[in-house]
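In keeping with the milestone schedule agreed at the kick-off meeting, the structural modelling team has produced records for the first pair of proteins. Each record is given below as a sequence line and a structure-token line. The laboratory manager (R.T.) confirmed that both were archived under the project's standard naming scheme.
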Amino acid sequence: MQFSPTSRRWCCPTLIKSAPTSCFRTGSCSARPPFKLPRSQVTVEPVMFLATFSVAMQAPLSTQYLWDRISEELGYNSSRTSECSNLTLNQDPLQKEVETLTAQWNLYINLGGFSVGLLMVPLLGSWSDVAGRRPVLILPNLGLALQAAVYLVVMYLKLPVVYFLVGRVLCGLSGDFNVVLAACFSYVADISDKRSRTFRVAILEACLGISGMLASIIGGQWQHAQGYIKPFWLVLATNLAAALYVYLFVHESVLPNPSARFFTFRHYKAVWHLISKGRTTDEEGRYDRSKLWLYLLCFFIVVTIHFGSRELYVLYELSSPLCWGPTLIGYGSAVLHLAYLTSLLGLKIMQRCLTDSWVALIGLMSNLTGLVVISVADTTELIFTGYALFFLYMTTTPVLRSKMSKLVDPSLQGAMFATIACVESSCSLVASGLFNTLFTSTLHFMKGFTFLFAAIVLLIPSGIIG
């Protein structure tokens, strides 16, 4: 990447060669927003922060809302203390039915959204390489805002929870949160060189943790005090604010092609060639695709376990013997998101004396031990101990992203991040189906078996990386 001092913006070397000199003097080679942040290195970090904040606040609240609506329809009083104060093996059958139905609706809703998003992620990610990053940064935030609006209508009118599925599908058509991730990482790759890229990516990862932690605390406390509707208005507002920020302040990082088509199979082919042939279309450079496949497999397993376990934590905490309320659920989610910061700090320290592979292995061991403890947790103290053991578990995914990014030429970063985003979308799809089904199927003999199963599966990427 090179910086153009006359236009005060970063430009790709390939674009510098093809664009006329006057383009860079005037700055018209990119879509300029109405305003500019003076002397600021801040670019897409607020977009990542706001989008993550909305998703992190919405996810546990929507699960709790499903629990409450289903409990109300079945006549189950989830506020009863007798179930929580008496540790007994004979769990209330009505509570089991509420758990099962809530997990099933979570499955249906997520399957609907993620299956649509799986088709849109590679399309939007690859399209951004020719049409520019700004449209792809704005579109998914508007989709997330539309989903929040649909959820609000359901809550105001007490509509059937099946309408949650409508909101998720509409959000999936805009690419969902995975496109926000892909666009932000691609933008950072556009404006940074190899030496500074790791630090810029680390800042984005920190935004995930900080915003998720704040959203978890605020969401749990707010829902406990004033119900579900007002927190979801904040979710809607943050998504709209993220889209408005992109429109007003974020400069384009690639040269948009006005004739670029959106609905074309060439975008899918670019991602397919990257995986299957070790190159993209019209590219001569090749790399060891077997390494890419192995890294993608490790990434798929680790992220699938992250997504699947995270969906079940709220259900695990709501039911006996824990029976947590919104406040404790918010604190628990905040501790989980705090691991993003502790992992980044640990990553920076460990890189001084360890290779990236060892850092990833330590992260996997942190994840594995935490899951084992949670699988047998029957007290609040024990489950917080499991969450605390996750303090390095987010060191694995940044290392894998970095390894895959270094495999390909700098000019192929857009296609690479589109591929990673597609894998992340697949992870969400598989995690929703596998973990919710496994959880409901194993409730009768071991409530935490799903977490123990996830810990065992983590031995696979440990063996590959080691």
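The second protein of the pair:
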Amino acid sequence: MDKSRSNSKQKVETKQVDLDTGMPDLPKKELFAITFAFLGINMAFSLQSSQMSRICQTIGANPNNLGFFFIFPPLMGMIVQPIMGKMSDRTWNRFGRRLPYLLFGTPIAALVLIMLPFSGSLGFGYGSMAAMIYAAAAVCLMDLFSNICMQPSRMIVGDMVNNKQKNFAWSWQQVFSNGGGILATILPFIFTMFGMSNTAKRGVVPNTVIWSYLCAAAVLLFTGLWTVFNVKEYDPETYAKYHHIDPEEQNKSVSLWKLIKTAPRAFWEINLVQLFSWFAIMYVWTYTTGTCARNIWHTSDVTSAGYQAAGNWYGILTAVYSIAGIVWGLIYAHAKAGSRKKWYTFGMIVGGLGLVWMTFVTTKTTSIIAMIMFGIGNFSINTIPFTLLTSSLNGKNEGAYLGLFNVGICVPQIVASLCSFFLFPLVGHNQPMMLLLGGISLLIGALAVQAIHEGVTVKEA
């Protein structure tokens, strides 16, 4: 990057540059293998986001307390990802640097994924404390091991892909991610079409949802192992050469606290945007099913066929915004490196307007249009920040920084969940109004994008 600035404290001129220009272009086969794991990983996360509210209310959770369940996933991410990033920065063995964690996490993630949909089938009783505790534990374990799978997949892109190919690689990763989201969220609808029961007795999760989770677990296992056995990471010497760092220096252990204090400027600037972005996304996950049920099916009874139909429809809407993200991603993959902030701002604005519109929709057709708009924003939020961040890191402690960066994704989700305990009653227990707040949050975040300074800052000679 060519932008220059003056540091008033040290009185030295600095500029922002790319340090990975010497890295080779990777063949598309390799880029495919690096990003393919996200198909299965996001099947898990998409089922969590699209079905967790439905499952929890089906087994008897009070809608006023849904935020409680949605605190656990980001909390797990906050704890796991920085630690795993720091550990993997120092992991070099015959399986690689990041891949050993994916190899360990994938089978366990597939196993714990299927715990949640059976919450209502184990005889705990509708709305019982045992059912709530089991569901909370299932959510924690599912997110813990899904994070163990997700973070190495992100780190490999930063490790192996040069700045010229970063837009392409992160776009592919999000395309596979959205593809997994589509598969996961339309499965209940497809199973219903083929005659599987989409309702069950009080407190029991319908078979359409249970079988969706079983299919997602199988895909998660297959795609994760595909990446493990088809990607060859750089050895320590090659990595140091491509990233222009001292081979000995990359083995030095630095505390997470010191890394936070010395984080690049872009790290904090992007996290400010993330605060508004993930606040909004948390409310999409939590309140879209209820919004559809209220505005389109005119019901709030979670045991009714109308509410369960709304749950299936939210799955379709998730597929819609995922498809929109895929199309947008294929376009963005060809964007110039210097235009990332413009794409980011545009995506946030369109996504915010989509959520505002979603608040007032009364038909399936208008809900589709609104969620197409949100899909453009969702793609931007899940792709461009990582491109901006990894192009602003110098190759040292990259895994740790990506893990710490995830805290900036998790904290807004926790804040949003906690805020829901007073915001939801404040808006009259009106779930569509919570989506309106999310839309406003995205529009504010779009303004903050302009403050981001991309690139590695170095002193000029």
